[in-house]
Each structure stands twice: as C-alpha cells, then as structure tokens.
Amino acid sequence: MSRVVVVGGGLVGLSTAMMLTQEGMDVTVLEQDAGQLPDSPAQAWSSWPRSGVGQFQQAHILQAPAYGILRDRIPEALDVLRDADATRFDVSLAMPPSVEDRTPRPGDDKFDTLITRRAVLEHAVASRVRQSVDIRRGVKVAGLIAGSSTMDGVPHVAGVRTADGAEIRADLVVDASGRRTRLPDWLAQLGARPPQEETWDGRTAYYTRFFRSADGKIPDMSGGGLLLQYFDSYSIIVIPADRGHWSVTVVVHSFDQDLKELRHVEKWTDLIRACPNHAHLLEGEAEGGMLIMGGNGDRLRRFVVDGKPIATGLLAVGDVVATTNPTYGRGIYLGLAQAVGTTELVRDHLHDPLELAQEHDTMLAERVVPCYRDTVHLSQNRADQVAAVVNGHPVETPADGERPAHDLFVAGYHDADLFRVILESGLMATPLEELLARPGVVDRATVAAKGLEMPVPAGPARPELLRMLAG
C-alpha cells in the first residue's frame, strides 16, 4: 500500500487525505495546531484554537462547485452540516429588488450549497475524515527528507522531518499547509530551485461581526443585502450561516488609511445603521467584538519551471498554490478542485514521480490558473475604482473592449437570466471571460443595459462616511 503524508489539516488537507484514502492509500495528516477536534459545532466555533487558519472565524461561504465536490466525495460531512442547521442557498435571496422576475428556472440547482460558519464546516469535514485517516495534531514539520533523485538536478522528496526530530517516510508528500507554508524554504534546503511565483499586492482588510437571532431564524435578506455589494470606497458582505447566525463584513483597501476607523465597533455600527438594506441586520445579538483580518494579497506558485519540475515526490495543493482575495470566496473551491485533480493523478501516476509532477502542473494550469487570473482581474478593477474615489478622481468609464462585462453587470440588475450569469461568476467561480463567450450573452446584455447605469447601493458615500468617522 502506497503511503502519503499530507502536511496541513485544514479543509483542503483533510479533503485531499480523504480522497487519497478512498483510492486505497495509507494517508497520514500532520497538523501543527495542537487543539483536538471539539465534540460539537458550537464548541468548534467558541473554543477550537486554529491559529494556523487566518479566516477560521471570519465571514465564509462554501461556493456551489465546492459543495458539489463534498457532496460527491465526502457526503457524510454534509449530513453533519444539515444537522447543524446550515442555511441552504436560494437564488432569489441574492437577487436585487430591481429584478422583477423571481420565477425559479430549470438548472437553479447548480447554485445549491450549504452555508455555515467556517469553523462549523471544518468540524463537519474533520468529524468524517478522522474515521478513515490518521490525523496527528500538534505536529510541526521542520523540513523534507531527500531520497534518490529520479532526474539530474531535481531533488526527490522521500518524506518529512518533524520539529521534534522524527522522520516520517512516504511515497509522496502533499503540502496543504496554507498561505503561511514554509515549502519554499524546505525546497531550498534540498537544493531545489525556487517555485515560479506571481503576486498582486492588492491587500484588503476585513472588519466583521457575527450576529445571531433569538429564534434561530435568519433575517430577511431579499432587499439586495445578501452577499457582496460595492459602495464607492468600501464594500459590504452579508452571509447567512447556521443556527440563526449571520455575518456582516465591511471590506476596505489597505491603502485607504481614513477608513481604518471602522475597526472600532461603534463606528462600524454607525456605518451599517446608515445603510437602509443592511441596518436591520444589527437587530440580532452580536457575538463578540470586531474580527479583523488584513494582508489579503494574491499569489500563484508553479512547481514546474521551464518545463522541468523543481522537485519530485512532492505536490502542493490549496493556498500553497494559489491564494486569492477572500472577498470573492474562491479559496475553498480552488483548493477542493485541486484535491480532486491531485487524487486522480496520484492514482494514475504515483509510480512515475517525474510524470506525476508534470501532469500535476498541467492540471493546475487548466483548473486553477484561469480562475486565479480572473480573481486578480476583478480585484485590480475594484482597487482602481476605490483608488480613484480616494484620490478625488473620476471613476473611469469602461473602455470599448471592457464594455461587454460592464453591460452584463448593469443588465443583471434587471434581467433575471443575466443575473444568473453574474451569479455563476460569484458562486460558481466561473471566469468572466468564459461567461461572456457564451452564445447570445453579450448581445442580450448590450440590449438590456441600453440607457441604464450601474445602480448605486443605498448608504453613505465617501464624504458622508468620512464625516461620520471623524465624529
């Protein structure tokens, strides 16, 4: 039986381990956080120390294709989520009021997902995976073990070395240790070339509060307040969760120092109260204080450089490969898509480490890179808009080549079918370029958007917000 070590026991690491186990492999997961799996979802939220996961108690949504992967590969985890009273996504809830036709459409089930707090989701997956996989918590990996090279100049990984000096040998090491991975350092210690990296430093900051209702019901979100809304220099994300919980997040850009005052609960509350579509969300019982997360840059790593793997016997998945702006909620989907692809390739090519490394890079190019680049494009466009507002410059109108995307988003606020196309970009993580290439989409959007402008959400514009924060 082939032995695999997975470094990192988060959602992506656990899911990868489970899928590999289903293929008949002996899998061990090494997780550096020492806290053991709590007995209940409530305890997972209140007292599970997961310092290695930056978004563990932040706003979170399980995108529809990620839900589909769990449904197909680890269905018992979804049973746990249903028992935890997860919220089922409803297309109509996300529709702005300006869309008059709210009739369900055939195929709406492709948007199906269950929405919970991030800690509850990991608890559900871990509860199932631990029945089949050896999960060792509180074990920190310090480096990689070198094996016999299969290609001149390319080191081969034969296992890992832990911080206490133990060696765990394996036929394959999978690094799923997240955006804080030390993999580049470990590879350098073996004499490997560094991975190829591209980054975009469009950092944002999250200011989030969670609320819960006394009766366990989620408040009405049909007024257009669900999910993401762009204001002139800030955004608001509203996400329902489980057991009558929901989160409200204000997203600002790190270069916008004036809005840092939103870290104060009272000023954050003043802003939400001043937004008509969001003010009623303050009526629940607030849980704790302000949850702040910053430094949300984008990074893509590739481990085949100039057509040659930098190491064999080692694969990377999840945020180790691609970290994206969490505003768009694509991280878990990208990680689970990699878990599926990695499992398929390990099943077919584990006997040939060189071929496995090359095929893995091809899989990433097909399944990850387009979505990553689309997310960066969205982030860049939004950052440019905010920067223009902050600097007192007019927001540029779309150039001719960008008009189709602009028309689609304008028309989607009125046309029920085009709204669903936009929703595919948001919930399905489908690159915008792919959506616009569909027959008839651009023509229909051009006609539907004629004479219309992008609606402005109800809430303070920047001058008013600055006055509020200065008070």
UniProtKB/TrEMBL annotation:
Coiled coil as a keyword?
A: no
Keywords per UniProt:
Oxidoreductase
The record's listing under SUPFAM superfamilies reads: FAD/NAD(P)-binding domain
What GO molecular function terms would the record report? oxidoreductase activity
FAD dependent oxidoreductase domain segment(s): 3-33
Task: Return any one Pfam family short name.
Answer: DAO
Q: So which domain of life are we looking at?
A: Bacteria
Q: State whether keyword Transport applies.
A: no
Q: Which family does it belong to?
A: Belongs to the flavin-dependent halogenase family. Bacterial tryptophan halogenase subfamily.
Q: What is this protein called?
A: FAD dependent oxidoreductase domain-containing protein
Which species is listed as the source? Kibdelosporangium phytohabitans
